[in-house]
Amino acid sequence: MSTREWPISYWHYVPGSSSPIQMMRGAMKCMDCGGVKKGETVLISTDTNKLRIAESLAGAAYAVGATPIIIMIPPVRTHGAQLPEPVVAAFREADVFLQPSTWSQTHTKARVEAIKAGKRG
Predict the structure, then answer these.
(1) Where are the alpha helices (DSSP H) in 34-68?
(2) CATH architecture entry for 23-116
(3) SUPFAM superfamilies this protein is in (predicted)?
(4) CA–CA distance from 95 to each of 30, 37, 78 (Å)?
């Protein structure tokens, strides 16, 4: 898709696909890269702005035989803001975690503890 098809002012931004059907190929790649296997639990931590992406990831997890769990919170308004403790606990328990969110969850206690516990994300 070229930027000429969109009336946008930022040359580096092209709106992505928003249909779950259109996002399924990418969601399946996430399952492949995460090594998601049948019977595993896939935690998808998202916010209200990215629910459609989370639903596509959940569909892909289900398609490979995993159990998807979506946790949705309001956007936190800053990168690296700590997540509520129940979310942190869910990260520790899942086999794989994914974090489609408006603000980055990469440098959070939830992700750090999950990686230390041997989880994939």
Answers:
(1) 51-63
(2) 3-Layer(aba) Sandwich (3.40)
(3) Thermophilic metalloprotease-like
(4) 14, 9, 27
Nearest alpha-carbon partner for 96 in 8, 31, 15: 31
Which of 34, 32, 27, 42 lies closest to 93 in space, CA to CA? 42
Q: Which residues contact 121 (CB under 8 A, 6 or more apart)?
A: 34, 91, 96, 97, 98, 99, 111, 114, 115
Q: Please report the pLDDT score of residue 55 as a whole number.
A: 94
Inter-residue contact 57 to 68 (CB < 8 Å): yes
pLDDT at 3: 47
Angle, alpha carbons 107-109-110 (nearest 5°)? 100
Q: Pull the structure tokens for residue 57.
A: 């990831």
Listed in sequence order, the DSSP H helices in 13-121 are 20-33, 51-63, 85-93, 109-116
Q: What is the spatial distance between Cα 32 and Cα 38, in angstroms, rounded to a whole number?
A: 12
